[in-house]
Amino acid sequence: MPLAELQLAIRMLQSRGQPVRLDGWRRRILPRLSDQARMVLSLVPSVGWAPTFLGPGRTGTPEELFEQVRATPSATVGAALADIAQKQPVPGWARLLADDPELRGRLYDGLEHLYAELVGPHWQRLADFFAADRALRMRHLLAGGIERLLSQANPQWMRWNAPVLEVRMINSRDYDLHLEGQGVLLVPSIFASRSMVDDDPAQPQVTYPVSDELSLKRLTALVPEQKAQDSGGALVALLGNTRAAVLNVITEHPGCTTGELATLTGTTSPSASRHASVLREAGLVQTVRHRNTALHTATALGMALVRNPNGTLSQV
To answer: In this structure, which long-range contacts are made by residues 57-62, counting pairs with CB atoms below 8 Å and at least 24 apart in sequence?
Structure first.
């Protein structure tokens, strides 16, 4: 959900939280923002209400989602801003949005500019974090059912007390999400510091920080990527039938353990672990630990190599 993550990024850009991880990112981004982008900042505060039409919680490519945002009916824009105005101050110019298509266009241009600066350059790495987190949550679900899944998603700020999911919100307000047999969409986030609830009757959604197992890597998720001088050695070491088979299996079985990897590739656990380590160093695999178990998931780069139409990996 690129725009949902963008809205969280916009909030964190304006806050002072998580200085070790985010202050460098803030210093790089803030001087580069356009006037249109700053219009969006004034509507999406670090804490408070924001127009839902700017960050729809839907899946799709950024291009598709921006098209949906631009197609928002003027009546929806007016209703959303009127609702927010009852809860907190809104900029004077924003009161003209519903009746001024040109002004809305500038606002939407600012939203796209913010995506290009805040999230777009890092999206592939963020997607790898989300995939690894989902693999860990699937293990929780398989091992202990829905109770374990919900109780482990963010134990510091969420508690499952069937049939209620109790959430401590970012504003320290407690929120009880009554599921009563209804499903809930769990959305991992790099920018979220606590859990957040969107109690949409059609599809309740809870956003939470990615697993603590990824916390150290999360510190560098927004650092500009540099071309590694020794990356060639890792990629050369990647060549070979067994390692290609290991990458294929991890791609086909995201979240597999080292033992499962060994079984599926017909090798030993120590050998599977070594191959997974080389793949991880080359940026093709991401590994998280669940208790004493390593769970391996292919990164976007790893999946792209496996799906190469020339079949390079399968033939080496």
So the answer is: 57/1, 57/3, 57/4, 57/187, 57/198, 57/200, 57/205, 58/1, 58/3, 59/1, 60/2, 61/2, 62/2, 62/3, 62/115, 62/120, 62/123
C-alpha dist (Å) from residue 181 to 50, 150, 162, 173 = 29, 14, 10, 24
Q: At what angle do helices 258-265 and 269-281 cross, to 10 degrees?
A: 110
User: Cβ distance 244 to 224 under 8 Å?
Assistant: no
CATH topology of domain 231-315: Arc Repressor Mutant, subunit A (1.10.10)
Q: What is the pLDDT of residue 182?
A: 77
pLDDT of 235 reads: 46
Average pLDDT, the chain: 83
Outline which parts of the chain fall under CATH 1.10.10.10.
Answer: 231-315
The share of the chain scoring above pLDDT 90, in percent, equals 27
The pTM of this model reads: 0.72
Rounded to 5 degrees, φ, ψ at 299 are: -80, 175
Count other Cβ atoms within 10 Å, centred on residue 306: 20
Q: Is the pLDDT of residue 169 over 70?
A: yes
β 205-209/185-189 pair status? parallel
List CB contacts of 231: < 8 A, sequence separation 6 or more. Answer: 282, 283
Question: What percent of the chain has a predicted confidence (pLDDT) above 70?
Answer: 87
CA distance 6 to 119: 6
State mean pLDDT over 212-228: 58
CA distance 199 to 80: 16
Mean per-residue pLDDT for 202-213? 79
Exposed, middle or buried, 176 (CB in 10 Å: 0-12/13-18/19+)? exposed
